Amino acid sequence: MTTRVIVPHRGLEAAKTRLAPVLSPVERGELAAQLLERVLRIARAVLPDVVVISPSAALSPLVEATGARLLVQRGMGLNEGLDQARAVAIADGIGTLLVLHGDLPELTVLDVRALASAITVARGVAIAPDDAGTGTNGLALRPPDVIGFAFGIGSHAAHEAAARAAGVPFVAVERPGLAFDLDTPADLERWLASGVLG
Q1: pLDDT for 55-77, tens place per residue?
Q2: Contacts of 77 (CB under 8 A, 6+ apart)
Q3: Structural domain containing residue 166
Q4: What CATH number is given to the structural domain containing 65?
Q5: 69, CA 20 to 30 Å: which among 57, 63, 92, 119?
Q6: Which residues contact 130 (CB under 8 A, 6 or more apart)?
Q7: What does the chain look like in DSSP terms, one character per residue?
Q8: Burial class (CB in 10 A: 0-12, 13-18, 19+), 63
Q9: pLDDT tens, 161-187?
């Protein structure tokens, strides 16, 4: 069964605005690029079919250097972009869709494998929650349109509710590398202290 990874991204100029108190715009762009490149490299070590959906065509060199592909988003909004990427995946005959955020600084190959293998039935949903247990940092869908995307505040509960409404099983994939996303100055301090910089 074919699996595709979708990594949504706002673009380097728009990324990491919550780090403005501690990083300059150039530094935020460099950090966002480093994080995205790492996520793409690790995802491709597990699954060769990786697509970035972003309104920023300027991401193309970074994305293509990792062997991934860029799909330029027509409109704005995370869920809208994912819907566009999903439609392309369905047209391409993809059986399982993984969504990974591009700001997971401690993501590992084992994390991606765990999410990719979490669904063991023909129809199902796997959710990788954030550290707080309220957001969704990773999502696996089989088939790709088994539920709608509900990223945003409270997305973990929203994705669970969507799975229940669709009558399909769902499983939580709780792993530190999937749970930790770098958004705030405190997150940055934690990451720098961890020594996981590669």
Answers
A1: 999 999 999 999 999 999 998 89
A2: none
A3: 3-194
A4: 3.90.550.10
A5: 119
A6: 136, 137, 156, 179, 180, 181
A7: --EEEEEE---TTTS-GGGTTTS-HHHHHHHHHHHHHHHHHHHHHH-S-EEEEES-GGGHHHHHHTT-EEEE-SS--HHHHHHHHHHHHHHTT-SEEEEE-S--TT--HHHHHHHHTS--SSSEEEEEE-TTSSSEEEEEEESTTSS----STTHHHHHHHHHHHHT--EEE---HHHH----SHHHHHHHHHHT---
A8: buried
A9: 999 999 999 999 999 999 999 888 888
The tokens describing 57, both together, are 């065509």
Show the tokens assigned to 83: 């819907």
